[in-house]
Amino acid sequence: MTQELILETRGLTKEFRGFTAVDDVNLQVREGHIHALIGPNGAGKTTVFNLLTKFLPPTRGEILYRGKPITGMKANEIARLGLVRSFQISAVFAHMTALENVRVALQRRLGTSFHFWKSERTLDHLNDRAMELLDEVGLREYADVLTVEMPYGRKRALEVATTLALEPTMMLLDEPTQGMGAEDVDRIVELIRRVARGRTVLMVEHNLSVVSRLCDRITVLARGAVLAEGDYASVSADPRVREAYMGSEAVEEGASA
Amino acid sequence: MATTQTLTPAMERQRNARLRRGMLYLVLIAVGLAAPFVAYPVFLMKVLCFALFACAFNLLLGYAGLLSFGHAAFLATGGYVTGFLLSSYPGLTPELGILVGTLAAVVVGTLFGALAIRRQGIYFAMVTLALAQLVYFVFVQSPFTGGEDGLHGVPRGALFGLISLRSNLAMYYFVFAVFLIGFAIIQRTVHSPYGQVLKAIRENEPRAVSLGYNVDAYKLLAFVISAGLAGLAGSTKTVVFQLASLTDAHWHMSGEVILMTLLGGVGTLFGPLVGAGLVVSLQHQLAQSPLGNWVSVILGLIFVLCVLSFRSGIVGEIAKSVRKNFK
Fold first, then answer.
1. Which is the most buried residue in A63, B17, B36, B163, by most CB within 10 A?
2. Residues A26 and A79 grouped into a single domain
């Protein structure tokens, strides 16, 4: 394939007091792909994720975004580059309405976010755009509902809408289907497929059936290092991956789903 | 910009809330204007100064989620600077003295904030406490504060050089105006684009970061506004009582403002006003009664009761029951 690399890590390493959580990871994410990061518990997926989104500083190694190093940047700065992350536990602003949740993401571009002397009514013209985004994830009727009162699956959808408000070039999703019932999982899978058009997605995911349905490319981590990389068929056929997952049913189950 | 907009229920609700708030302000202003004919103006001025102090504190705790244990430092900075200027330069008008005192509190607040904001929770509280103790020490030692004696006989002067503030009634209306300005600044801050981001940060800080907000800068601004308004309260208080003393700089004062805010209702607009009114009244009443020596004990008991049984404070509890019964 000739697609360009959008995100790349070189020798990415994270040590916590002598324990190496992430060991010399070289990850390459191509533009336009839905790329999954999978691996058994404790493989270092979330740590890699936090390193990429600058929520943790790496011990060694480099992170490049479109060929430019972003290793030294702060978490809020990379969001401004268009790299926006989600969280494992749904990250919403609980005591704000769904509309306000999205609007707070939209308002950053106005450049008035430090203006404490202006009325919040100056934000009202963002409401239409916020509604469009809510519509896109099927939450129009929740616009005026306080987020704390929304069901879990809807909160995750709201999170996606909030992320889309930033018009990200790349979305980093941390276990988007975690803790969900089957119905919600299907809805989120569809949603991710839809919003991934024209974007790059890197996701950490436990649910292999989700991965098999969505992802163009998969990186398997085990004990902090890259074990295998490729499309779903080749990765799931890899005996080392099967061994890492112990008992290998998980992989087969996912393939047949 | 879209000028014709469909009014969503939320917008309608917001508009109703704004109307209700507007009504409340009108009532507040009416009560404030009439109050000195019912109650003793000096007592009312004390309540208003502490209410402004508590409102400033509430902006930080209730809307930014930051518990400062050093707010006395800003109250005292405002008080001492204004007291010193008005005593030393008889030509200076009180409003200028108050303005400079407030700016001094803003400067100290910026320094405190820049140092403390990087820490969270209890560490943030400890850093602010430590810095406030440092300021206390400076005030004890500096010649311009009068040390243990404090500054006495600060002249009230004449507002804009025109209106004498010697009469308590004139002074009262000036203090009331200052309070309203401070209150309006807080109102606007809470209901501004900035207020929205502040709320988001309080609700979920990592998420606010991931949306591209530099949260430390937003917190710092909240801290500085809060410190400035606390300074404004201190400056005004000095003019009213013609006195600046170490009591205002002591950590007791930092604790008292926490008590007022929690008692009235943290994160509510009128809570700090109610809390300050209650605490000042109690102190005032108890000081004249045989229980005079027990003020701290009684306040302590009320505090315990408040934390145990009505955690959202008086105004918070009322708001809750109103919401429950009128939904």
1. A63
2. yes
